[in-house]
Write a sequence for this structure.
């Protein structure tokens, strides 16, 4: 299952952003990590086997991190399109 996860940190100093980013990019279940603005600090694309697996991932990445202020997860029910090709126009 795929989860699109918004994460907001309590402290947004460069060292805090870098530390969180380093942790999530090294986690095998995180497929994508985006720093975004405005809104949450990060948007993650997370793959999990099922809800119990997602719960373990969320505890490792979010619950155990005292600097994580807010997490909002959206669970994909259908992927209508996925691509990486970028159209080049002249």
């Amino acid at each position: 299952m795929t989860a699109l996860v918004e994460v907001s940190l309590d402290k947004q100093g460069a060292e805090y952003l870098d530390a969180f980013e380093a942790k999530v990019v090294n986690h095998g279940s995180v497929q994508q990590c985006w720093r975004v603005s405005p809104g949450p600090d990060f948007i993650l694309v997370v793959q999990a086997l099922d809800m119990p697996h997602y719960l373990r991932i969320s505890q490792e990445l979010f619950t155990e991190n005292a600097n994580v202020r807010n997490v909002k997860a959206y669970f994909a029910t259908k992927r209508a399109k996925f691509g990486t090709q970028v159209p080049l126009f002249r």
